[in-house]
């Protein structure tokens, strides 16, 4: 590895552990493809329930910041009503922090008690079933199974130099932060966990994150 490569360099992880990254990508492709095929019946059932309750579309698409701050469309099962009330505070919000995102900031799209969340939406959010379409993003190469959760562009635009380090790696369906608390933490804590992942990336850490996430999801604790 070139000793002149800094941790803030986009090639930092690629040059540091090329073999592990190759194995990680291979696993992402095989795992996402197999799981997508196996879950086709579940996808069809959830799609039917979403359409029955609140019509189309079935999927929610939103631009997120990926590796090296590359923008991509992330997929989720739609959990919010098409016609929403004015109680949705997160819509159209403008973030204009000048020195990075505050540590005490907590971003939440909407709790299960939000009147804009559908009945089926409450269920799929509780057990993170709304995240399953992101396996398509993994198969495409936009995301990985494990990595920092992809953030919305309006927030990453405000990142300071330290916070931008979390964009060195490919975002994931689940990450070290989610395995250690999921949505129940502020931005400062989330960044701390994400930077730990960047600094200590390994296949073993990915396995550890995956196992911890399974227990989190089975328990229905929090949401991604």
Describe this structure in words.
This protein is mainly alpha-helical and 224 residues long. The chain has one domain. Helix content is 42%, strand content 10%. The chain has 9 helices and 5 strands. The protein has a 3-stranded antiparallel β-sheet. A two-stranded parallel ribbon has the order 3-5. The relative contact order is 0.16.
Outline of this structure?
The chain has 224 residues and is mainly alpha-helical. It has one domain. The chain contains nine helices and five strands.
Shape: globular
Succession of helices and strands:
HHHEEHHEEHEHHH
Unreliable spans? 1-5
Output mean pLDDT: 87
The percentage helix is 40-55%
Q: How are strands sequenced across the largest beta sheet? A: 2-1-4
Count of domains? 1
Proportion of beta-strand residues: 5-15%
For the biggest sheet, the summary is: 3 strands, antiparallel
Q: Count the DSSP helices.
A: 9
Backbone CA Rg: 18 Å
Number of strands: 5
Helix/sheet category: mainly alpha
* N- to C-terminal distance: 35 Å
């Amino acid at each position: 590895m070139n000793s002149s490569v800094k941790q803030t360099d986009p090639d930092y992880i690629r040059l540091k552990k090329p073999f592990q990254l190759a194995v990680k990508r291979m696993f992402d492709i095989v795992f996402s493809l197999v799981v997508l095929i196996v879950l086709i019946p579940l996808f069809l059932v959830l799609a039917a329930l979403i359409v029955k309750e609140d019509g189309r579309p079935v999927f929610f698409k939103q631009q997120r910041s990926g590796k090296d701050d590359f923008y991509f469309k992330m997929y989720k099962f739609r959990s919010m009503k098409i016609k929403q009330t004015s109680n949705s505070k997160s819509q159209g919000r403008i973030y204009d922090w000048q020195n990075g995102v505050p540590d005490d900031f907590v971003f939440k799209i909407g709790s299960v008690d939000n009147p804009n969340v559908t009945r089926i939406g409450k269920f799929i959010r509780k057990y993170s079933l709304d995240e399953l379409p992101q396996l398509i993003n993994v198969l495409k190469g936009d995301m990985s199974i494990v990595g920092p959760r992809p953030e919305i562009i309006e927030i990453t635009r405000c990142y300071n130099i330290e916070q931008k380090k979390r964009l060195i790696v490919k975002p994931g369906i689940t990450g070290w932060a989610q395995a250690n608390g999921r949505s129940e933490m502020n931005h400062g804590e989330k960044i701390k966990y994400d930077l730990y992942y960047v600094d200590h990336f390994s296949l073993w850490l990915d396995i550890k994150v995956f196992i911890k996430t399974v227990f989190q999801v089975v328990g229905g604790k929090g949401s991604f």
